[in-house]
Amino acid sequence: MQGPGDDLHDRLLDLEGQGWTALSSGTGGDFYRDRLSADAYMVLPIGTLGREASINAMEQAPPWARFLLTETHSTALGGDAAVLTYRALAQRDGEPPYTALISSVYVREDGELKMAIHQQTPLAAG
């Protein structure tokens, strides 16, 4: 397991943060069109989605007003894959806070780290 200060961990956390920032600015679809692997799959509270359906959902979703990623950990899964896990606290304007445990698996594709699997487990409010 790897944590803050590790190059792989820092790179994965940076990529994940860029994604949340894009989702907050309404450009999530454009960002993830370039950052998802060819066979990407997402397990979200709205259902399970393949690559194109995931991008479409991001383009339709209202932007996040704020987000915070904590309890971050990363694990290398061989030379060409790694997973980042964390707790997210996010909120959209006019909506209650969203808290979830999240895992994102990245693979090396065309020389770049691309998100292959993304899974969210929402936590009960409270």
Write up what this structure looks like.
The chain is an alpha+beta fold. Helix content is 29%, strand content 46%. It is built from three helices and six strands; from the N terminus they run H-H-E-E-H-E-E-E-E. The protein has helices spanning 7-25, 28-35, 51-60; strands at residues 36-44, 47-50, 66-76, 81-91, 98-109, 112-122. The protein has a six-stranded mixed sheet. A hairpin with a 6-residue loop joins strand 4 and strand 5. Helix 1 runs antiparallel to helix 2 (28-35) and helix 2 runs antiparallel to helix 3. The longest helix is centred in the first third of the chain and has 19 residues, at 7-25. The radius of gyration is 14 Å and the shape is globular. It starts with 6 loop residues before the first helix and ends with a strand.
Brief summary of the model shown:
By secondary structure, the chain is of the alpha+beta class. It is 29% helix and 46% strand.
What keyword list fits this structure?
3 helices; 126 residues; alpha+beta; 6 strands
Which SSEs are present, and which pair or pack?
Layout: H1 7-25, H2 28-35, E1 36-44, E2 47-50, H3 51-60, E3 66-76, E4 81-91, E5 98-109, E6 112-122
Parallel strand pairs: 1-6
Antiparallel strand pairs: 1-2, 3-4, 4-5, 5-6
Helix pairs in contact: 1-2, 2-3
Number of strands: 6
The number of distinct helices, counting runs of at least 4 residues, comes to 3
Compute the average pLDDT.
93
Main sheet record: 6 strands, mixed
Q: What strand order characterises the main sheet?
A: 2-1-6-5-4-3
Alpha-beta content class? alpha+beta
What portion of residues is helical?
25-40%
Q: Name the helix and strand elements from N-terminus to C-terminus, one letter apiece.
A: HHEEHEEEE
Q: What coarse outline follows from CA principal-axis ratios?
A: globular
What is the CA-atom radius of gyration, in angstroms? 14 Å
Q: Residue ranges: pLDDT <50 for 5 or more in a row?
A: none
| Gap between N and C termini | 29 Å
β-sheet strand percentage: over 45%
